[in-house]
């Protein structure tokens, strides 16, 4: 798109979002904000920042309007059926599908802008372990051809798995990888596929016991003294809050029923948005300085 465009701020998006939902009368700001986030998940300020990134840094189609971004956020937040979404936004199914899938792809293309491996070095204190790593699984329909490799022991059904690395010092998402079939790709195998090659010699990561191996550059609770496990537990608990935030979007919480090829862009788009929120100071609890010291 051309660099000259109308700048939409958070107030514009708040007003547009409520109008799309059919809210005509003004309500107290906090009431309006709560309603907005109920359908679009994120703060209007984040939506405004995302729109600016989409316009300047992606191949967003010139016909895409701010309304289409709101359609897409509502689709991922509510995961309502297409008929209901089209009724809400007053469009046909083909139009909704066209714009929402395109916007998802464009948000996902911001991965290299928002999720940077080098960000693990921000505020680096010299500790050999700079990230926590974990796999997270998402429920899907049973795609054909049937294979037991889709089975996830985490919820006892078919799914897809992603690897996520979080900076110990900042809580930033610095790496994602996937999707993988959970039954064929245990966490350690996924880490060996890419993450281990990204680590310079001598650098380690914190993870649960599923990553334990003699040749793995991982630190698990079995590798440290008992009195250090509380500190590691806090860092891993913070990591789990990020995985939980992904599933605040119902498209990742509920059984994914769309084409399997769409799941990767959806997860990446939501990871990008989550990182935007983290950078704005939302959602990640601070770990005490001594917790983030060398383990």
Question: How would you describe this structure to a colleague?
Answer:
By secondary structure, the chain is α/β, with parallel strands linked by helices. The chain is built from 11 helices and 6 strands. The protein has helices at 10-20, 29-40, 44-57, 66-78, 82-89, 93-108, 111-114, 187-198, 229-246, 250-253, 260-279; strands spanning 129-139, 151-152, 157-167, 173-180, 204-206, 218-219. Strands 1, 2, 3, 4, 5 and 6 form a 6-stranded mixed beta sheet that branches. A hairpin with a 4-residue loop joins strand 2 (151-152) and strand 3 (157-167). Helix 1 packs across helix 3 (44-57), helix 4 crosses helix 6 (93-108) and helix 6 (93-108) crosses helix 11. The relative contact order is 0.13. The mean pLDDT is 93.
């Amino acid at each position: 798109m051309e660099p000259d465009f109308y700048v939409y701020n958070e107030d514009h998006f708040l007003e547009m979002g409520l109008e799309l939902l059919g809210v005509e009368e003004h309500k107290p700001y906090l009431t309006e904000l709560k309603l907005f986030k109920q359908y679009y998940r994120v703060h209007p300020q984040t939506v405004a920042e995302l729109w600016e990134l989409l316009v300047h840094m992606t191949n967003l189609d010139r016909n895409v309007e701010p309304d289409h971004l709101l359609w897409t956020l509502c689709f991922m937040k509510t995961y309502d059926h297409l008929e209901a979404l089209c009724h809400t936004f007053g469009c046909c199914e083909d139009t909704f599908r066209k714009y929402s899938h395109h916007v998802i792809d464009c948000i996902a293309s911001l991965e290299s802008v928002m999720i940077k491996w080098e960000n693990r070095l921000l505020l680096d204190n010299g500790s050999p372990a700079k990230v926590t790593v974990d796999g997270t699984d998402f429920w899907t329909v049973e795609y054909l051809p049937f294979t037991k490799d889709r089975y996830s022991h985490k919820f006892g059904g078919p799914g897809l798995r992603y690897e996520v690395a979080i900076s110990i010092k900042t809580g930033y998402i610095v790496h994602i990888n996937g999707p993988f079939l959970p039954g064929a790709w245990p966490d350690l195998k996924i880490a060996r596929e890419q993450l281990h090659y990204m680590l310079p010699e001598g650098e380690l990561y914190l993870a649960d016991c599923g990553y334990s191996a003699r040749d793995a550059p991982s630190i698990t609770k079995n590798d440290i003294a008992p009195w250090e496990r509380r500190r590691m537990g806090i860092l891993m608990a913070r990591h789990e809050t990020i995985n939980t935030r992904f599933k605040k979007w119902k498209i990742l919480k509920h059984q994914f029923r769309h084409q399997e090829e769409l799941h990767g862009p959806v997860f990446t788009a939501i990871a990008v948005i989550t990182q935007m929120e983290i950078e704005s100071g939302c959602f990640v609890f601070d770990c005490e300085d001594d917790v983030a010291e060398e383990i």
